[in-house]
Write a structure and sequence with these properties.
Blueprint lengths: L1 H25 L4 H7 L6 H12 L18 H13 L5 H7 L4 H13 L3 H4 L11 H14 L20 H13 L6 H8 L5 H10 L11
The structure holds heme C (HEC) (2 copies).
One heme C binds next to helix 8, helix 9 and helix 10.
């Protein structure tokens, strides 16, 4: 009898232990882990799994208004995560997501998505190129001075997001956020988007979504 009781006790102990292991591994976003995360940093795979639920596997988004992160510049990603954290870029969902992250986790997560390179993005069907009227064609040259790699912005390029290949609705939404001047904090982009009237925003968003960046995979 004693042996039987012992076997039962051991079996229960193992199943409880195993249950905890698998719960920990398979359900990263339970309430339990979210609250303990404020004291104890969540490990990287758990963080990435949470991001993937909106931003897609490897940072390629399948959801309207949710940006691709794959291959986005590391410095820019870090800045934006800090801005969501401090509410200088306003988005409730992203604020909640970054609050439990330490500054070094923010840098790690930015490095992770940057390292995905542009491979996945390049596979996105980019559609046909968009004809621009003379006003927009001239303007795009200005946009590219910051947003595309060139001789003027070598030192600062990590501060600027890659626009080429980003989702159209997201790009248009971002430009309108700058136009409103209270969702995101950037004087340069306020000035640039003030030059755009009505549907010009949507035209430029389509233009950039359908364009390939000159930036090559893995370039820093
Ligand atoms: C509930 C859905 C959701 C989750 C989970 C989520 N995001 Fe986001 N994320 C969004 C949305 C929506 C936006 C666009 C916000 C806006 O319009 O300003 C965004 C924007 C961003 C941006 C700005 C990108 C750019 O091009 O400016 C970054 C960086 C980002 N998210 C990183 C992350 C990371 C890292 C995680 C995981 C730690 C994460 N997100 C989890 C929905 C989500
Ligand atoms: C002087 C440099 C500069 C120029 C010129 C410029 N931008 Fe930007 N742009 C930035 C910076 C810096 C950011 C990031 C701002 C922030 O921190 O929110 C940005 C952000 C953006 C975003 C948000 C992307 C995202 O992933 O959320 C869009 C869209 C954008 N720019 C479009 C344009 C367009 C279109 C033009 C030309 C009409 C343009 N920009 C010209 C510097 C510039």
């Amino acid at each position: 009898m004693k042996t039987l009781a012992w076997i039962i006790a051991v079996t229960i102990a193992i199943s409880v232990f195993y249950g905890q292991l698998t719960r920990g591994a398979k359900t990263p976003a339970t309430k339990e882990t979210a609250s303990s995360a404020t004291m104890d940093m969540p490990p990287m795979p758990q963080v990435i799994a949470q991001c993937a639920s909106c931003h897609g596997e490897d940072g390629v988004s399948n959801t309207r208004y949710v940006p691709h992160l794959a291959g986005q510049r590391r410095g820019y990603l870090t800045n934006q995560l800090r801005a969501f954290h401090d509410n200088t870029r306003k988005n409730r969902g992203m604020h909640a997501v970054v609050m439990p992250l330490s500054d070094s986790s923010i840098e790690d997560v930015a490095a992770y998505y940057w390292a995905q390179g542009q491979v996945k993005r390049a596979n996105i069907d980019s559609g046909s190129s968009v004809e621009l009227n003379p006003k927009l064609a001239e303007l795009v040259e200005k946009c590219d001075r910051c947003h595309e790699p060139n001789e003027y912005n070598q030192d600062a390029i990590q501060q600027y997001p890659i626009l080429a290949g980003q989702r159209q609705e997201y790009l248009a939404h971002s430009m309108r956020d700058f136009q409103s001047k209270h969702m995101r904090d950037n004087e340069m982009m306020y000035a640039m988007t003030d030059l755009l009237i009505g549907e010009e925003v949507d035209t430029l968003a389509t233009y950039y979504q359908n364009r390939r960046s000159a930036e090559r995979v893995g370039r820093h």
